[in-house]
Design brief:
Elements lengths: L3 H6 L1 H24 L9 H20 L15 H4 L6
C-alpha cells in the first residue's frame, strides 16, 4: 500500500504529480472535445499561457530551493559537491 503522507513530504514527487495532473487535464479536455462532450477548445494560446504560468511557478520554487537535488540529503549540497571546482 502506498504511504501518501510520505510521498507528499517529497517535494520532487509533488512537483512531478502537479506536472502529470496538468498533462492529464489537457488529455481529458482534448478527449472531451473530440467526443463532443464539451465545446471547449484547448487552443495553442491557452496551452502557451498555462505552460508559462507553470514554468514561472516552478522557477520561483526552484529559486527558493524548494525543488531540491535528489542526490543529496536535505537542501544543501553535499560536502563532496562543495569541494568541486567544476561539475563532474
Amino acid at each position: 500500500m502506498i504511504n501518501w503522507k510520505v510521498r507528499f513530504k517529497n517535494r520532487l514527487w509533488v512537483v512531478a504529480l502537479v506536472s502529470q495532473l496538468f498533462i492529464l487535464a489537457e488529455v481529458l479536455l482534448v478527449g472531451a472535445h473530440a467526443a463532443g462532450i464539451t465545446e471547449f477548445v484547448l487552443t495553442e494560446e491557452i496551452k502557451g499561457w498555462v505552460i508559462a504560468i507553470v514554468n514561472a511557478i516552478f522557477g520561483v520554487l526552484s529559486t527558493l530551493g524548494l525543488v531540491q537535488d535528489p542526490t543529496t540529503a536535505g537542501m544543501e549540497d553535499s560536502v563532496r559537491a562543495k569541494g568541486y571546482n567544476e561539475p563532474k
